[in-house]
Write a structure and sequence with these properties.
Length: about 290
């Protein structure tokens, strides 16, 4: 269940529409059997988002602001590189600044880093392009082009004050204890809490992106992994009442969403070349199949 819109403080008349819609969703969520009072996400110690007022002036400030606009509106900004109806901030909410939603705060300071899926040390530019290729079902940017430079500038700004080196503990999604999931139960929870924004067929609406089908994220995206999707849902959905679902309900909804077809990712069988895919990998890999038991 991706977020219905990408940034707090939506502009102009659209803001009124979204606020009214969110209120309707909140009212509809009240009294749903099995749900509890929402639980707030615990913001990690040391987590701090730099204020816009601290952005530099001149060319660097222009680059940072342009990078933010690109990730907020990827399809419009990068029409030749986005192949679905998602944008970067569907998974990294509030322009990558929300602690519960795979924040980019500190991401610049943690690269280069080893990536098990790639089986090598990668740069932040590589990671951005993998998101374009997998989550947005598109094509990579030129690593030395202006668009990539501006995206990296924005992520570097978000890392202001974070020491370069060890990966900050808050990056990614806060992990849940893995468990068996019931897609049938998830279908009922989805019907009660998610169709208002994502539609009964998960095809998306004006409020929210598609969760499956040809215009959603590809099979090779991190969100196609059960543990990752459950963690995102647990702390970010429903959009108007994040933290409403229990861990088990989040897993059940994730299993339901991931039970549907979605775009393929070419060469996904080459992922995790060292034969160490995670337990919830959404597809088999050649290295894992040939790894001695």
């Amino acid at each position: 269940m991706m977020p219905p819109w990408t940034r707090d403080g939506a502009r102009s008349a659209g803001a009124v529409f979204l606020i009214v819609a969110a209120a309707a969703c909140a009212i509809g969520a009240l009294g749903v059997p099995g749900l509890r009072a929402q639980v707030a996400f615990p913001v990690p110690a040391g987590y701090s988002v730099p204020a816009d007022s601290t952005m530099p002036v001149g060319a660097m400030g222009v680059s940072i602001r342009r990078g933010r606009e690109i990730v907020l509106h990827a399809a419009d900004s990068l029409p030749g590189h986005v192949g679905n109806k998602l944008t970067c901030t569907n998974c990294h909410r509030e322009a990558g600044t929300l602690a519960s939603s795979g924040p980019w705060v500190g991401s610049f300071a943690s690269f280069p880093q080893y990536n098990a899926r790639a089986g090598r040390v990668i740069r932040l530019e590589d990671r951005v392009n993998e998101c374009l290729r997998r989550s947005l079902n598109g094509t990579p940017l030129a690593a030395d082009g202006r668009d990539m430079a501006d995206i990296i500038s924005y992520m570097a700004f978000l890392s202001t004050g974070v020491s370069h080196g060890p990966r900050p503990a808050w990056l990614g999604y806060r992990k849940l204890t893995p468990r068996a999931a019931d897609a049938k139960s998830g279908a009922g929870i989805f019907s009660e809490n998610c169709v208002r924004c994502h539609g009964p067929q998960g095809a998306g609406t004006q409020l929210a992106p598609p969760l499956w089908g040809s215009r959603s994220f590809a099979i090779g995206a991190g969100m196609s992994r059960l543990n990752t999707a459950a963690a995102f849902i647990r702390w970010n959905m429903p959009f108007d009442r994040p933290g409403l679902l229990t861990d088990q309900q989040a897993y059940d909804v994730a299993a339901f969403v991931l039970s549907h077809r979605r775009p393929d990712t070419p060469h996904k069988e080459l992922d995790w070349p060292n034969g160490d895919p995670p337990d919830d990998a959404a597809y088999p890999t050649l290295a894992a199949q040939h790894k001695p038991k």
